[in-house]
Amino acid sequence: xxxxxxxxxxxxxxxxxxxxxxxxxxxxxxxxxxxxxxxxxxxxxxxxxxxxxxxxxxxxxxxxxxxxxxxxxxxxxxxxxxxxxxxxxxxxxxxxxxxxxxxxxxxxxxxxxxxxxxxxxxxxxxxxxxx
Length: 131
Description:
It contains three helices and six strands. By secondary structure, it is α+β, with helices and mostly antiparallel strands. Strands 1, 2, 3, 4, 5 and 6 form a six-stranded antiparallel β-sheet that branches. The radius of gyration is 16 Å and the shape is elongated. The N and C termini lie close together (8 Å). The model has no long low-confidence stretch (mean pLDDT 94).
């Protein structure tokens, strides 16, 4: 469970405010992309999971903004699973620029029944990743 997934993100004009600094909510978008790409790298597609009746949602998060990223920066966005429960998992995530911490977050993901929008246990195919 200690494997860290990282992906590069380029900061574009659309990611910034009028001062050329990354708008704070966009770090959460970058982190969502990293979790989605981690899942894809494991052989899962959220569209297929949804069609099979499984929806993954952010249940809770805590975020700390340390330093700003700017237009044209190349960031490294990381996702690491730190805890897994019956229907939730905890990701530790961070965005860095050349090793310098810009933003870190703890993101708790819940597994839901897509039709009822109620918690459900992880599908066996996903649980196999964690064992």
